[in-house]
Amino acid sequence: MSAAGVTEVEVVVVGAGFSGIGTAIRLRRAGIHDFVVLERAGEVGGIWRDNTYPDVGVDIPIWGYCYSFEPNPNWRHAYAKGEELRSYAEHCVEKYGVRPHLRLDTEVSGMRFDDDRDEWVVTTSRGTYRARFVIHAFGALGRPKQPEIAGLDEFAGAVIHSARWDHEAKTSGRVAVIGTGSSAVQIIPEVADSAAELVVFQRTPIWVIPKPDFPVPRLLRWGFRRLPLLLSIPRWIVLVWLEVLYNGVFRFKLPFVVTLLERLAGAALRRQVPDPRLRERLSPSYRFGCKFLTLSNRYYRTFAREHVRLVSADIESADATGIRTADGAHHPIDTLILATGFEVFERTSLPRYPILGAGGTDLGDYFAANRIVCYEGVTLPVCPNAFIIHGPYSMTGSFFLTIENAAAHAVRCITEARRRGATRVTVTDEAFTRFGDEMIARQASSIFFNSNCEQARSFYFDRNGDVPLFRPTTSVEAWWRMRRFPLTDYVFGSRIDAARHREPAGHGEAP
Predict the structure, then answer these.
(1) CA–CA dist 462, 391 (Å, integer)
(2) How far is it, in rounded angstroms, from Cα 236 to Cα 241?
(3) What is the C-alpha to C-alpha distance for residues 346 and 262, in angstroms, rounded to an integer?
């Protein structure tokens, strides 16, 4: 209901990517229908709506990249393209009744917790919402990272960020790409086909393994539609592979797994790049796994083409006509592509907008002063009645399993509060500290701290040297704990009951 320009709902979900859509479906399945999903854009789809650069697609076989309750028999590629993912998001919105809850073109500009009413006040571009609960489902890769290059604003040509692709810009002349991450690995071979000259500015080499992609035969898609149980076969194969990859590489750095993947990448590099000096410049000095998984059958061979140049010297500045590097060279270009990734643990992204929790605690200041931790990757003591999808230490091998885990955790808390008639749900300081200590201790055995990963300049690391993007547990353990956490780890009560827990809790000062 609304009063004086304020819309009152039980739950506000922020974001209509796969995290927000999955959360909305979970709420409806739990019998919670008084909620809205706020989305800044005019369409759903999240990163698959925003990223439309050439050859954009997933980096894992598609049967492991979908909701467990909604397998799709119609994937056209083993590694689906972005358009297929956007269509899948729209399909799920319609099939599961999420559309009436969507509030598109509604950008959140800030929120604060009202201690007197145990409610969140959410300010948006289309008015104010009051909600008992808030679920942040905007994902980790939503805010494009802009490089700090002196004089870049003076460049006279087109500047395109990979996450905001300009389809009207020309890539037929002298083109430069800054970055060699997962987006660049997909973009560079495509742009090389159209550009007269292509310069790739590489700060850090990256491991690239072959991509076993193939079009899914029409007959097989027909079989999946007629016998849905068949879909469980490729799905479980992919999930097991992801679990082996995640635990064998990230968690424990099992030598045979890491070495096998490095040899696959090395063999592809030797086969596609005959020049030994160029191969050396494309070879990482850190172990496989320190950076985001990248797959391509074309990336390495692109650098063997005559009109493509690899530049490893640091970028010094830009001017109207091009880029100048630290070795004194000037590289004239017409179009500049920024494949520079996203803000993940920067102060401007944690949080995305001003958030004032219990007692007026500024969440940005809180994270700046403490280690980046959430209980089970979902909640913070300073933010009652608030939950995060893809929060710190929530991600395991499966992206969609992480969504379903966090949504299940949040809905369990909300359902229990409803059952008890509680107006405030707050994780206890003891549970929060216990979980944070466990995660930080367990990640010490991972590849990130034993494989020269500091050479990788990976966005996995926060300013404290932790890796809160990943959860150092198996997917099975994460699934169990996110659904079976002790309810005694939370305080369910009213404003008066929760006043004893209002002092902001921190997980140790940041180093």
Answers:
(1) 13
(2) 8
(3) 30
Rounded to two decimals, what is the model's pTM?
A: 0.91
Location of structure tokens 């949040």:
410
Taking every pair of Cα atoms in the chain, the longest distance, rounded to a whole number of angstroms, is: 72
AA identity, residue 401: L
Q: Count of CB atoms within 10 A of residue 193's CB?
A: 12
Cα–Cα distance measured from residue 131 to residue 260, given in angstroms and rounded to the nearest whole number: 50
Q: Which residues on neighbouring strands pair with residue 209, listed in sequence order? A: 295
End-to-end Cα, the chain, rounded Å = 46
The DSSP element (H or E) to which 372 belongs, if any, is: none
Q: What is the residue whose two structure tokens read 């893809």? A: 390
The number of C-alpha atoms within 13 Å of 473 and in the hemisphere containing its C-beta is 19
Q: Are 483 and 389 in contact (CB under 8 A)?
A: no
HEC per residue, 106-131: CCEEEEEEECCCCEEEEEECCEEEEE
User: Does residue 259 carry a pLDDT above 50?
Assistant: yes
When mean pLDDT is compared across 137-151, 232-246, 306-320, the lowest value belongs to 137-151
In this structure, how many other beta carbons lie within 10 angstroms of the beta carbon of residue 304? 13
Signed CA dihedral, 94, 97, 100, 101: sign only: negative
